[in-house]
Amino acid sequence: MDVRLPPGPRLPNLVQVLLALAAPAVIFPAAAKRYGVPFTLTMAPNRRKIVAVSEPDQVKDVFAGSPSVFHAGKGNDLLRPLLGNHSLLLQDGDEHARARRLLAPAFGRREIAGYRGLVEEVTVQQLDRWPRSGRVRAHLLLNELTLEVILRVVFGVSDSKRLDRIRPIVGRAVDAGPVVMIGLGIPALHGFGPWRREIDDLATIHDFLGEEIDAARRDPALPERRDLLALLVRASAEDAQGLTDEELRDQLMTLVAAGHETTATAMAWAMLELARHPDVQDRCVEEMEQGGTEYLDAVIKEVLRLHPVVPMVMRELQEPTTVGGRKYPSGVTVSPSIVLAHRSAEAYPSPQDFDPQRFLGDVPTPTTWLPFGGGARRCIGASFAMMEGQVILQQLLQQYRLERVGSGREWPRARNVTLYPWRRARVELRPR
């Protein structure tokens, strides 16, 4: 088999990494058109080789591959300064399997059903603070809403005064752009400008999380609590391989950072599409009035297809491995491109069109619809995110009719490793 890497852009390494992080919706389709798939990107600072794949057989080989061979932690190393060394997104091998086993019960079907009432309560409270009509930047409002949801779900706090001091700091820390994220991996920059502020914010968040963990361990009501922190502290106490305070802190940081921003961004894209397609809005409302959610669920899936929040998945090979019939050497990062997989004309006819009908009655295949990744590393909070998105859109559409501003289209813009609407999802709200 051919062991040479596929061709790819010859731009300077730093330019390639900035384009891949800041404009994946541009560089990936452009490179695929010029070089075909797979193609290779060379990323600074270590001339790291990233091979982008998107065909179903290639994606299947990656997701079905042994976790001991396909390491995601090293592939996600850019997130280490933000999430911590023990984040589930950065762990591999036995360490990852252990952490996932301890975290999984908190995201079981019964637990998610129990969280639904809390999500509904917080959503109603937050929407009461929205303007009754007029133009808004929905992404900003949704970030506040989903941050409040995740803080309440994680810490179980009904009196939010205790969270007032940390709420804006979390929002600011998670808002880091590609330049800040890259710079966090360069210690020499930590004393300057935006990097220093990010380091200070992360230290404040870590102190807060440490205080919450310590308080939970000493709480006499811990056995009755249903929040995620309580579940994790109890699981750690009952398991001989339980999580240390530092491990708990990093997992909580991951839940708070990834758990609110991704849903807010997905719902911002959803509001833009609903504003552009009033017929889709009307059908959702009609279905809701009849007590159904099938079409609304299809809308969410189509939003995640057309506007993936995370553009790619990263797996670093620990030994020579075959993917899609092609052999790659150890050390290469193989990256299923969510952007390219979701734009495949074979899987999705007229892939640029917004068409929820695609997902009615059909279960999307895990090699063509992959907004939550796949395999042993599939997002542990996927079911929670889908439930939360459903609740938010139901409440929104009960209170508002959404109208587009201008064309209603916005370009994807990078924030850490996610893609949000360039103008923060400008829509016009009209009371129903």
TrEMBL record:
CDD domains named among the record's database cross-references: CYP110-like (cd11053)
InterPro entries associated with the record: Cyt_P450, Cyt_P450_CS, Cyt_P450_E_grp-I, Cyt_P450_sf, Cytochrome_P450_Monoox
PROSITE patterns: CYTOCHROME_P450
Gene3D superfamilies: Cytochrome P450 (1.10.630.10)
Keywords: Heme, Iron, Metal-binding, Monooxygenase, Oxidoreductase
SUPFAM superfamilies listed in its UniProt record: Cytochrome P450
PANTHER family: BIFUNCTIONAL ALBAFLAVENONE MONOOXYGENASE_TERPENE SYNTHASE, CYTOCHROME P450 FAMILY 4
Entry similarity comment: Belongs to the cytochrome P450 family.
Protein name (record): Cytochrome P450
